[in-house]
Amino acid sequence: MESIKFRRILGLDILPGESPQSSRDPRFAYLVLIDGEVRERGEERLSRILKLAEEFRIDAIAIDNVYELACSREGLADLLRRLRHVPKLVQVTMVAGKTYPLDSLAESLGLARGKLNPLQAAEVSAKLAYLGVGSELLLFEEETRIIVSKGRSPAQGGMSLERYKRNVESLVLNKTREIRSSLERLGVDYDVFVSRGKYGVERSVFIVYAPRTRLYGVVKPFQDRDLQVEIEPVIRSKPVFIPLSSPSRRRTAVSRYLIVGVDPGISTGIAALTLKGDLLMLTSGKELGRGQVIRMIAEHGVAVLIATDVNPAPLYVKKLAAMLNAELFVPPHSLSVEEKRALVSEYVEKLSIPLKIRDSHQRDALAAALYALRKFSAKFMEVREKIGRLGLDIPEEEVDALVVRGIPVWEAIRAVSRDYYLPTVRERTLVPRTEVSCFRKLSEELNERIVKLVKRIRSLEKEREELLEKLSTMEAQLWRVLKIQSAEARRDRIVESLQKELSRATTENARLRESLEELDRHIKRLRVLLSRAARGELVLAPRFRRLPEKLEGDVAREGVIVLGVLQPNDYERLLEFTARKDVRVILCEQNFSEYYAEMMACRDVALLRLSEVKPLDVIGDVYIFEKKPLEEAASRKLEELEVRSEKLLKDSLRRIMEEYRAERLRRLRLKTS
Q: What is residue 424's predicted lDDT score, i.e. its pLDDT?
C-alpha cells in the first residue's frame, strides 16, 4: 500500500461568508502542494482557482467537505467537467467511512494545533491528501462517452439542404472512422452505436471503457459549423467514497443468480430472470454501453448466463458475457418473430400481475432469456430431484449456477456440499525467533528500496505521460497524411509543406521583428515627446474633421485645435466657438479664404494652414507641435494680418479723402457756374 498517492495537490477551504449556493462565484483559500513542497497560496474566486489547477495539472483537489464546492452530485460533476485535465476529488476528513474534524486530524498527525484559519485549513487538507489520508469521491465511472454529430441545424432550402446533409454525414462518417482507429491503436475496449443516414452517418456514440484521462491526446473535443465531437465522463448513479489507503475496491456479495437476455443495437433491450423464472428487470434504452448494462444487472444479482436471440451472437453480447464472466447462450438458429411472440405470450399469461412490454427490443431480450431458461429447465428439475432425494439442506440456486456453467449435476452438488458442510482449516506457520530479526532487517532494506523505486517510477511515469501525449499527437497527424498520400508523394509533400511553413515562419518572423523595432522606436519617440510635453515644450492639439456641432467639455485645453476642413458657412459657428472656448490658434488641413484669417485676427485668434507649421507627430486625432515655433508662427501671422489691415485702412481713408475732395470741387464748380 503506497503512502503517497498524488504528486500535485490543490488544498481548498471556503472563506467565511461564502457559500456554493450563492449566485456569485465563491472565494476560497487555496494552496498548491507539489511533491510535498508549497508552490503557491492565496485567496481567489473558484473560477480562477480552477484555471490555476489547469496550469499546474493538479492530480487531486483536497478539501474537508466536497460539498463546499457544489451543493449536489450534478454540480460537482459539472465543475470537474469544465477542466480538460480532470483531477481526483478528495475529502480528507472521511477516513474508513467515518468523518472526523479537520482540526483533530491535523493535531493528531502533528500538522497543526488549535483552530485553523482558511489558509491553514487548505494547507492541512493538501498535506493530508499527500500522506494518503482521506477518501476519494468517485463521481464518474471508468467509462467515457464520445458523441460525434452535426454542428448545427441546416436552413430550409432544396438542393442546398441535400448538399449540406451529404457533406455533414460524410464528415461524421470520416470522424467516426478516425476515432475508431485511434481507440484501436490505443488498445482500449469500446462499444459504438451508429445512426446511419441517407449519405453516410448522422450520429455516432462511443462508450469507451477507460477513464477520460487515458484519452488525452488521442481523441480531442472539436466543434465547428458542420461537425462537433463531445467527450464526457460517464457519471455514476450513486457517488462512492473510497479510502485513499484502500488497496482494493470490493463489491458486496449477492445471492441471486440471473439469466440475462440482451438485444443490442441503437436501442438495447435487457431482461433479467432468476434461475426459477422470476422476472426482475425488463427495460430498454438508447446507446446503452456495456458498463451501464453491467451496473443495471448488478443491482439485481449475478449474471451466470447471457442469452441472445440470434445466431451467430453479436459482438456486443460476446464482450458483455466475457466482462461478466458468464456463460454465453446462443440458440441453434435465429429465433423468428413468431417464436419470440409465442414464448413471451405464454410467459405473460402465467403471471399474476399484468406485464407491459413497451417495444420489440424488450420482447426480443425477454424471449432470449426465456428460450435459454427452457433449455436448462430439465437440468434444474434434476438438481431439485437429487437434492430432495439426498435430503440435503444446500441452496439449490448455487447448484443451478454451477450447472449453467457446464458442470455435471453430481459434481455441482458435491462442490456446494463441500462448501457448506466441511469446515475450513487454516494452517499456521510458526516463525523461529532467530529469523525474526533477519526478516525485520530485510523488511527495512526492502522498504528503502521501495521508496527509491517509487520515486523512480513516478519520474518515469511523468516522462512516459509526456512522451505518450507527444506520440499520440504525432501519430494522429501522421495517420491523416498516410491515408491520403502514397509513401513517396507523402515524403515530398511533407518536405515541401515544411519548407513552405519554414519560409512563412521566417517571413513572418522578419515582419514581426520589423514591427517590434518600429514599435520600440515609436515608444522611445513617445517617451521623448511625453518628457518634453511635461516640461511645457510641446502643445497637444485635438483634431476635428469638421467644426463640432456641440461644444462639450474642454476641447482645447492648450488653446490650439486642428480642423480638417473649413466650410464657407462655418464662419458664424467659428466665431461662437472662439467666443466660448479659450482658443488662440486654429490650424486647418485644407486651404481657406484669407477673409476668415482676417476676421479671426480681429479676435486675436491666429488661423493658420497646417503647411505653415509642421507637427512633430500625430497620434490618433491629436497633433503634437513644438510650442515655440507654433507661437512664433501665430504671432507672425497676426502681425502680417495687422500690417495688412493697417495698410488697407490707410488706403481706404486716402480713397475716401480723394473722393470727398473731388465731390467738393465738383459742387464748387457747379455753384460758380
A: 47
650 and 528 together in one domain: no
> For the packed helices 360-390 and 409-421, what is the interaxial angle rounded to 10 degrees?
70
Are residue 312 and residue 402 in the same domain, yes or no? Answer: yes
Q: How confident is the model at residue 22 (pLDDT cuts 50, 70, 90)?
A: confident
Angle at 156 between CA 152 and CA 161, to 5 degrees: 70
- Pairing type for strands 302-307 and 257-263 reads parallel
Mark 148-181 as b/e (b = at least 16 C-beta within 10 Å). Answer: bbbeeeeeeeeeeeeebbebbbebbbebbebbee
Q: Are residues 544 and 640 in the same domain?
A: yes
Q: Which amino acid is at 511?
A: R
| H or E element at residue 204 | strand 201-208
pLDDT at residue 464, as a whole number: 79
Secondary structure class of 329 (helix, strand, coil): strand
Total structural domains within the chain = 6
CA–CA gap between residue 578 and residue 574 (Å, rounded): 6
Dist. CA 231–CA 224, nearest whole Å? 15
Give 122-143 pLDDT, tens digit per residue. 999 999 888 888 888 888 888 8
CA distance 587 to 625: 11
Q: How many CB atoms lie within 10 A of CB 395?
A: 15
Residue 506 lies in a domain: yes
For residue 108, pLDDT beyond 90 = no
Q: Is the domain of 551 the same as that of 525?
A: no
Task: Identify whether residues 39 and 64 lie together within a single domain.
Answer: yes
Confirm if 436 and 454 have CB atoms less than 8 A apart.
no
Q: What percent of the chain has pLDDT over 90?
A: 21
| Residue 327 located in a structural domain | yes
For the ranges 17-21, 302-306, 538-542, which has the lowest average pLDDT?
538-542
**In degrees, to the nearest 5, what angle opens at C-alpha 327 toward C-alphas 388 and 325?**
110
Name residues whose C-beta falls within 8 Å of residue 603's C-beta, 6 or more positions apart in sequence.
Answer: 575, 578, 579
Residue 211, domain extent: 143-243
Nearest to 381 by CA among 485, 279, 277: 277
Higher pLDDT, 487 or 11: 11
Cell output for 654: 486716402
Residue at 442 is within a domain: no
The predicted-structure confidence for 318-367, as pLDDT tens digits, reads as follows: 999 988 889 999 999 999 999 999 999 988 888 888 888 889 999 999 99
Least confident range of 136-140, 279-283, 389-393, 419-423: 419-423
Q: Do 600 and 559 fall into the same domain?
A: yes
If one counts every other C-beta atom within 10 angstroms of the C-beta of residue 507, the result is: 10
Among candidate residues 81, 101, 133, the one where a domain is terminated: 133
* 457: CB partners within 8 A, 6+ apart: none
CA atoms of 3 and 261, how far apart (whole Å): 45
Q: Is the pLDDT of residue 250 over 60?
A: no
What's the whole-model pTM score? 0.49
Q: What is the CATH number of the domain that holds 167?
A: 3.30.70
Q: How far is CA 270 from the centre of its chain?
A: 34
DSSP 8-class letter at 59: S
Crossing angle between the packed helical segments 315-324 and 290-298, to the nearest 10 degrees: 50
Mean pLDDT score across all residues of the chain = 81
Shared domain for 267 and 403, answered yes or no, is yes
- If asked whether residues 281 and 346 sit together in one domain, one would say yes
Residue 305 has pLDDT above 50, yes or no: yes
Tell me, what CATH number does 43's domain have? 3.30.420
User: What Å distances lie between residue 205 and 121, 200, 284, 291, 380, CA to CA?
Assistant: 43, 15, 17, 14, 40
In the numeric block, which cell numbers belong to residue 573?
459657428
Q: Which residues pair with 12 in a beta bridge?
A: 30
Is residue 596 within 8 Å of residue 571, measured between CB atoms? yes
